[in-house]
Amino acid sequence: MNEVVASSSESGDYSADSSDGSATEPGKDREPSKRRCCGFGVGFVARRAFKVFGITVIAITFAVGLIGWPLVAIDSQMFKENLLSVLFLIALLLVILEDHVGVNKAAVMLMVSAAMWTFLAAGFHPHASEQGNQEMHAEMDKSLEEVGRLILFLLPAMAVVESIDHFGGFSVVTRFLMTSTGGRQELLMPMLSLFCFFLSAVIDNLTATIVVLKLLRHCAANDRHVRHTIGGMVVIAANAGGVWSPVGDVTTTMLWLAGNISVGATIKWLFFPSFAACVVPLFGLWLQLRKCSTPTTEMPSEEVAQQHIPEVRKANVLVLIVGISCILMVPVLKMITGLPPYMGMLLALGVLWFVTDTAWFHKLAQVPFEHRYHDEEIQIGTRPRTPAAFAQDPPGSVVEALHSMDLTGLLFFVGVLLAVGALDTSGILDDYAELLRKLCGNSPVAICSLLGISSAVVDNVPLVQAAIDMFEDKPMDDPIWQLTALAAGTGGSILSVGSIAGVTLMSMEGVGYIWFVKNISIWALLGFAAGIVTYQIELVLFA
């Protein structure tokens, strides 16, 4: 919008200059237009050519796997690894240039993952060999397990947060934030970032990101640049906060369940490095936001009161308490019973759904009488209403909140996980892990640093699994395990596609890949380095 206004003003200035009698030579007047037209044409052709090239490579790979020919290409391990690597890089470039080539990132990753697995399936020769068929399904099941756990966790997590927002639960926190900041938006960043840092350690970094982005949308609804900048910092804080808790990040949980790290030692040794990885970029992005924003002064209390501060009712407080309690139940259920987190999140959604569907909650929330569920008030002998009577979801229903969920980010991450699973099945990630070991020798810092930077491009789960296999002889709470958790967790913040928190930001706020690289990546990288340095200082002083 600003660009459009700027273009219009520039056009107006030019017209005014032309109308004041100052003549310009015809040749000089037309040449810039010609150059602009030629530049636009070259850029358009280049974008269209890369788009056609990328889709053509994907289609050819899919066709080769579908017809199972030529066998020389399908059965060659070197050709297979090179082709899948190139295909994955092309997909990343299409994702990076999403706004320029006009292809949705979710569509790209879904097509690429399908093409990669089709080509891999042909190499197993499932119709000619029963053993090959079993191996193919075993590899597919391994990838499906990871994707299924993500979907079964992310869907109810998004539904719980969306339902809390739908019933006005976040108005309680929004009111507190707006009154405590005094109308100064630059104070939102440190408050939300530190809140997200500690919240992600208690629940997990994905749910914490969704919750804080919802709060951010309420507190800075009219300033997209502020939301994007603070949202980038929220991603860094969520990933950093998930490192020092065994239930805060999936990679830390993997190391905990594998017996590589313990709860006490993880908190003791990784809290300050994680905090450094959060505070360093927080300071830089806060200064950057203050520099770019217009200077503001603290508003008087009467002016703050005139802002659009949400009204808080009993129903809002109740749904916030129930929702947050249900979310906090997820790590408790995991630690007590050992059940995977998605079971706790499914239970949380069910409990919140049940509470908000009761007649007494509808009365408390002042839902119009004609939209309430009256099943609890039906008398004996009367005929209850059939589901057909609820063809239109009432305003006080969780079902209505589900309609506002955006699933493009979820589908994009599903495609990424399936594509990374194909790279893992082909042996590319194992070869890469071994290459890291050869390049870095026996230096844990160098190995884990490169692993963390790599997790910004490739999902950190298979990389951490490769590290577990490489260093299986190391004892529990060895520095290599703690460095692995720190690097894999904070390294994913360097790029927006490096973590599910970053993908959630792209989905919920529409943040582009290139914008993230220009404005957030350098600070995330500095935070990553600060975390590694802080951990090394801890080892020198206290080990």
Account of the 3D structure:
The protein is mostly helical. Helices cover 75% and strands 0% of the residues. Helix 9 (188-202) runs antiparallel to helix 10, helix 9 (188-202) runs parallel beside helix 11 and helix 9 (188-202) runs antiparallel to helix 13. The longest helix has 42 residues, at 26-67.
Mean pLDDT comes to 82
Q: Sketch the topology as an H/E string, one letter per element.
A: HHHHHHHHHHHHHHHHHHHHHHHHH
The number of strands is: 0
Main beta-sheet strand count, sense and barrel state:
none
Low-confidence stretches: 1-39, 296-306, 374-378, 386-393
- Using only C-alpha atoms, the radius of gyration works out to 27 Å
Task: Please state the overall shape, judged from the principal axes of the Cα atoms.
Answer: globular
Secondary-structure content class: mainly alpha
From the N-terminal CA to the C-terminal CA, the straight-line distance is 55 Å
Q: Give the % helix.
A: over 70%
What share of residues are in beta strands? under 5%
What's the helix count? 25
